[in-house]
Amino acid sequence: MNSTPKRTSSTFWNILKTILAIFLVIFVISRTDLSSLWHSLKTASVFWLGIAVIIFLFLTLLKALQYYVLFRNRLSYPQVLNVVILQNAVSNYLASSAGIASYLTLFKAEHGVKISRSVLIFLLTKIGDLTAIWLGLVISSSLVWSQIGILHIPILVLLIGIGVVLLLFVLTVLFRQRFVSMLSRILSWLKISRLGLVEKGMQYFQGLADMEQNKILTTFGLLLLYSFVYLAVTIAYAYANLAVFHLQPNIVAVLFVTLLIQLVSYFPVTVFGGLGVTETSALYFWSFFALLRIYWLRR
To answer: Residue 1: its pLDDT value, please?
Structure first.
C-alpha cells in the first residue's frame, strides 16, 4: 500500500540528483579552458601517473584488508577483495549508495553473510575512517586556519557533528544496553524517535550494543590503525594526481582538501560516482590555496 509513494519519492529524488550533477558538470566545463586542458594532458607526467595507478591499486587492497579483519573467520581475503572491487566499480560509475547496496547484497548472495552483520561491519569500518578523518581535519584546519576564513563556521560544525557521532559510538560500546535505552528514551521524549533516519541510527546502535564488547574493542583498534594508514595512502594518491599535472602544493593543503572532498562524498546527493559534485567541491576548496592560479601562471 505504501510502496507506490516511496517509489515515486525515490524516482523524484534520483531525477533531482541527476539534474544537479548535470548542472555542476556544465558549471565546471564553463570554468575550464579546453585548449589549456588539452595542453595539460599532453604535458602530463607519465612517471607520476604510474605512481598514482600503483597507489590506487594499493588503496583497493588496503580497503579489502579492513573488511577482511572483520570477516576473516568466515571469508578469505580474495573473496573480500572481489566484493570490494565490484563495490568500487559500482560506486565510481553509478552512485555511492548503489556501491553500499552491492556490498551488502554480494556478501549475502555469494557468501551467505547476514545483511545485519554486513551493515554492522560496514558501520565499524566507516567509524574507523570517520575517526581518522576527524583527527586529520582537526590538525589540517588548524594549520590553514588563516587561509580559510569563510569556512571557519562550516568546519566547526563538521568537527562538532562528527565528534558527536564518535562520542555516541564510544558510549554505546562502553555502556551498551544502558546507554541505548537511555538514548531511546531521550529521543522519544523529544518526539523524534519515529523519524526514518533516527530509527535507522538506533538500529545501528542496538546492533553495536548486542556485539561482544571485548571483540568490538579489539577489532576496532585494528580497524582504526588501518583507517589511519588508508588515510595516509589516500593523501599520497591525491598528491600524485596533482603531480601528474606538475602541481606540488603544500601537503597540509592536500590533506585538508582531500578530507573535505571525502566528507562531501558521504552525502547521498551524488550520481555516477559523484559526477559534478566532486569536481565542483575540489574547484571550490582549492580556490582557498590559489592552486589553480599558480598552475595557469606556470603555463
So the answer is: 47
Dump pLDDT digits (tens) for 224-255.
888 899 999 999 999 998 888 888 778 899 99
Q: What is the pTM of this model?
A: 0.74
**CA 266, CA 171: separation in Å to the nearest integer?**
23
Please name which of 9, 24, 128, 132 lies closest in space to residue 67, comparing C-alpha atoms: 128
Neighbours of 157 (CB within 10 A): 10
50 closest CA partner among 190, 196, 204, 241? 241
**pLDDT (tens digit per residue) in 72-88:** 666 788 877 877 777 67
Cell 552483520 locates to 117
| Domain ranges across the chain | 44-298
* Residue 214 to residue 173: CA distance in whole angstroms: 9
Retrieve residue 170's grid coordinates: 564510544
Locate 62 and state its grid cell: 588496503
Q: Which three cell numbers stand for residue 20?
A: 544537479
Residue 153 burial (C-beta neighbours within 10 Å; 0-12, 13-18, 19+): exposed
What backbone phi and psi angles, to 5 degrees, belong to 267?
-80, 135
